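Review form for a predicted model. The reviewer records the input and the model, then writes brief findings.
Reviewer: anonymous (R2)
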Amino acid sequence: MKKIICIILSLIFIVMFAGCNGNEIIPDDNNGKDTDMGTSLLTDKTFKNGFGVRGLGEPIYPEHADEETYGDDKFGIVTKFQYGRTDLDQPHWNLAQWSTRYPFHNPEITEFNDLGNNVYSYSNQSKLLELSTKTGEFKLGLKASQCFVYGDRTAGQEWPHLLIERNLTNQTNPSPFTKISDKEKIVASVTSRLNYFEDKMTVQADESLHSAMMMLYLYVSHRNPDTRTFDDMIWLGVMIFDNRWEYSHQMDFVDSGSKGSATEKYIYNLGGEDFLSKDNNFWKDGQIVSGYDSPWVTATVDVLPYIGTALERAQLSDCMIGCDYENLYISGMYIGYELPGTYDIEMSFKDVDIRVFW
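Model under review:
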């Protein structure tokens, strides 16, 4: 299963140097340290400041890289989506569009629309972002059929991602809100609806190569007490939708070998039965259910009990060596798609949150 899920190499630098601009992120929902509701780690939940947009990363087809790339920076912030305004503060959120072929930052192919009532959209041949800065509800659409244009994915090939991501704390002076060892619960949650899903595979899908996944990942980072910097990490995944299975399998492995941009870090994914059920799922009677009239699905899970296990498993695989539980922090997160298979997907999202409890 190592060929299934891994993340672009550059993203690890985002994690390890989370918040290195020196700006401490403080929860802004005014509930403080509430014993019942906990404290949210997220700021700007309605995306009022927009998004920094990253480059395309590595191309799916290196031999056709000139068709996919735009600009020299593959991984850094190459533009901002701020709804046509110039008076907004620095975005708290970034948009990652790894290996999606058509760059969001190319103004010749990307269309911006003000849809009224604080709703905005950005779209091109392969991608859609639509959101309300009033409610924080948003849509992500990704067409792998516009990315795998020279045939379905083969072993070792990159695949398209569309993610919104953010840092949660500062590297050198991490927020106590993000420290793991003194918490009673760390609850990750999101409500989502599968608006559209279409299989565009031209060959029989191979489960080890082809899939469509939507997930929420937390960056469990180790802060070295000697250097006072984040120096290693685990990807902790809440796999919410996977077109192969009604409930995603619990899996953990080293992110290596599936493509050139593998991070070589440890991935620990929770099983879908830990936060989904028969009546709270994207499946019914063995079939995927999609459409704008399909039900919303809420995934809520306390990830804290899994973190110690993830650290133990990582160290058994020669990862996180020298790291200890007392110096672990939730340093960042992302939510969105990875499409190793030729599938087109659109989902709506609301109530994304990460809350900590003492």
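Findings: The chain has a mean pLDDT of 91.
Further findings: The chain has one domain: 9-357.
Recommendation: see findings above.
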